[in-house]
Amino acid sequence: MTDIASRRAIEAVWRIESAKLIAALTRMIRDVGIAEDVAQDALVIALEKWPVIGIPDNPGAWLMTAAKRRAIDLLRRDKLRGQKYEEVGRSTKLLYSEEDLHAAASGEIGDDLLRLIFMTCHPVLSREGRVALTLRLLGGLTTEEIARACFVPEPTVAQRIVRTKRTLREARAAFDTPSREELQERLVAVLEVIYLMFNEGYTATAGNSWTRPLLCQEALRLARILAEIVPHEPEVHGLAALLELQSSRLKARVTPAREPILLADQNRSLWDRLLIRRGLAALERAQSLGKPLGPYALQAAITACHAEARTMEETNWMRIAALYEALSRVMPSPVVELNRAVAIGMAFGPAFGLQLVEQLESEPALKEYHLLPSVKGDFLFKLGRMDEARAAFERAAEMTRNERERELLQKRAASCGLTD
């Protein structure tokens, strides 16, 4: 394996395993900042050794072993003895056998991830800090990627992450599942971070994969757990419904070569009908609780319109547009307005959609959002304005940091030339 191929493989493993590593290390060290540093140290060791010895059969367990050894070394060097060191010594052993490696990879990682989410949603943290830290630790995003996702400068994100870690350390935030009362206080934040975690898996911000299915699966698993823990909150079921319905389309979103497939071109027979049924049932549960639908339930209702349509042509775009109107009231956002423009364009024609998109071009928050020129290009293409459509798709391709998405947009730009 070449050095380049080896590095790409290691980066792929890191994106999958980093959140589990950090969660397990936080349980050991009780400091999320140090846990992330130790996990990064394990990555450096892998970058040095794997090009020589090859990728291990169980890379996640290999990284966990290296990280735990590094954690113990760090505790020794810093003379952190006493109760914390004794607890680590009792609960942690160095892993040598294949059986041990398998146990490390399949232990209490799921519980650790849930505890990590509760920790990053601690009430002492600002919303911006929670979002940045969660995307970093659970989504595996770089500071640059988080900045693009949040529409803020990169130095601002870096400062937020440092400040948030320091706040958690100073508050001595416990790495435990909170009590029922504490859970209720943090519920909105917990739902948000699981939602963000899923979104990063559904459409990756950067890299050479358009989707990260394992991240989606983990977010869906956590949403299901929350629906059991807090059964009387409609938004919990709304989020579960949304993730079930979105997950049903994952297999149809990429070709065997992992190239993106847009919604209009997807083979709907590949949509997972079991996940759709689960999603619709969760949505019905949210609606049955007698409270106004929140942003997650409304998004689930929108996704349900797609799930229930046998073809693109049968989609109830007028209902989708109405649901986006309702969503814009409970969760005002330029991105929601852009999605509403798409729905209106599909319901009433591309000229109406284009008019709304052009009004959004002056929105500062969408200045670096690649989907704005992408949507504009689609409407221009449907209106036969090929030169303008090509320019819009090329602009979108320049703005995205996802390689697969860039290739798709470049192909769409090239297709405008073929129809001249």
TrEMBL record:
This is RNA polymerase sigma factor. Residues 117-168 form the RNA polymerase sigma factor 70 region 4 type domain. It comes from the Bacteria. InterPro entries: DUF6596, RNA_pol_sigma-70_dom, RNA_pol_sigma70_r2, RNA_pol_sigma70_r4_t2, RNA_pol_sigma_r2, RNA_pol_sigma_r3/r4-like, WH-like_DNA-bd_sf. Residues 186-286 form the DUF6596 domain. Residues 21-79 form the RNA polymerase sigma-70 region domain. It comes from Paenibacillus zeirhizosphaerae. SUPFAM superfamilies: Sigma2 domain of RNA polymerase sigma factors, Sigma3 and sigma4 domains of RNA polymerase sigma factors.
